[in-house]
Specification:
By secondary structure, the protein is of the alpha/beta class. It folds into two domains: 19-42 and 275-348, Immunoglobulin-like; 46-255, Glycoside hydrolase/deacetylase (TIM Barrel, Alpha-Beta Barrel), CATH 3.20.20.370. It has helices spanning 19-23, 57-69, 97-105, 125-142, 160-166, 207-220, 241-253, 263-274, and strands at residues 33-36, 46-53, 75-78, 109-112, 150-152, 172-174, 199-200, 223-228, 258-260, 277-284, 287-293, 302-306, 313-316, 322-324, 326-328, 331-335, 343-348.
Length: 356
């Protein structure tokens, strides 16, 4: 599915703005508009994060095999003082801790759902500090090797004081479904990593609704976070194994167009993307210089250019060799090469039969 045409250049994090426009040179019309693609691959149109709340046995027994059969990682938000029990409702079922540890070892993410699942906005600062910091400390002790950087607010309850505290130790925090009319996905132009919207999947909904939310995220180039609770088991907002399997198959069939990743990984990438800027400068009718400013290693960032006849352009290596760039949805795109410094050169390569 094609994405909408990008808006006019704006001074926003993650956007790529032409030097010619900024400096007011006469060659402004010849310099193509360029920008950094937020996702790892140029063909990916949206990010999807699959999340599970409360640490329930059905998530391990039913949902996990469905995820792993399709190669999908997920984020599991667990409650520390009920980690060995079956979430926040049933206390008769014991879940061995090694089952959660094995899950992390296979590439899934453990996130904090706090210590006790108390609504944080109803606690004083000392109490919600304990819920945030102690839960992170305990989980990182139980699951060494992978930092616990993602938080889910219990009952989606949050206020500015809680948000400020969460920013001190996490890279993101997930709330619930939007309470006002708007998209179910997180729009990158107005993203707040500590008030992330999430679509709750519940048993009174059709998988068609979930699929439509994915399609909307692809059209808008955003990040859809889906939240699940019991799968074919009792509890709040339960869904069936059959419905989850149907939805995961929908995602699998679109896996090349989607980046399906954990909340922590998507938040980390978007944090870096906001600090990454690219600029273009026309050096003539057939040559363009592209500069990338990145806070870390720039290798692999996908640069997109709105350029005439994109299939006729190539990326030059330090020896002047030509490497064709790809064309995605009508734009020239290329991954920033490992051999490049802060700038690369693009050259228009006449096709056979073109006039000299």
């Amino acid at each position: 599915m094609s994405r909408p045409q990008p808006a006019a250049p704006r001074l926003l994090p993650g956007c790529l703005v032409t030097l010619a426009v900024l400096l007011g040179h006469q060659m402004a019309a010849a310099a193509p508009r360029v920008w950094v693609h937020p996702w790892p691959q140029a063909q990916q149109q949206a990010a999807i994060s699959l999340t599970f709340d409360d640490g329930l046995a059905t998530q391990l027994d039913v949902a996990l095999p469905l995820l792993e059969a399709r190669g999908f990682p997920a984020t599991f938000y667990v409650i520390v003082d009920r980690l060995r029990l079956d979430g926040k409702y049933r206390r008769a079922v014991s879940i061995p801790i090694h089952r959660w540890q094995e899950l992390v070892a296979r590439g899934h993410e453990i996130g904090s759902h706090t210590v006790s699942h108390e609504p944080l906005d109803q606690l004083d600062s000392l109490a919600f500090d304990r819920e945030l910091y102690v839960s992170q400390f305990v989980l990182e002790t139980l699951f060494p090797g992978r930092p616990v950087i993602s938080l889910s607010y219990p009952n989606s309850a949050v206020n500015p004081a809680v948000t400020r505290a969460a920013r001190q130790c996490y890279n993101s925090a997930r709330a619930g479904s939007p309470t006002v009319t708007g998209t179910a996905y997180n729009e990158l132009s107005r993203l707040d990593l500590f008030r992330l919207k999430s679509l709750f999947l519940c048993n009174d909904q059709s998988p068609r609704l979930w699929n439509n939310a994915v399609t909307a995220a692809m059209a808008g180039g955003g990040w859809l976070i889906e939240t699940m609770h019991p799968v074919s088991g009792p509890g709040y907002c339960r869904i069936t194994e059959a419905d989850l399997s149907t939805h995961l198959t929908f995602l699998y069939l679109r896996r090349t167009e989607l980046w399906i990743a954990t909340v922590g990984d998507v938040a980390a990438r978007l944090t870096a993307w906001r600090r990454t800027m690219a600029y273009s400068r026309a050096l003539g009718a057939d040559s363009v210089e592209v500069r990338l400013d990145a806070s870390g290693d720039p290798t692999g960032w996908q640069v997109m250019a709105e350029i005439t006849d994109p299939a006729e352009w190539a990326l030059l290596d330090p020896d002047g060799g030509e490497h064709p760039a790809a064309v995605e949805r009508g734009y020239l795109c290329f991954a920033w090469p490992a051999w490049a410094g802060p700038t690369v050169m693009l050259r228009r390569v006449p096709r056979p039969g073109d006039e000299p």
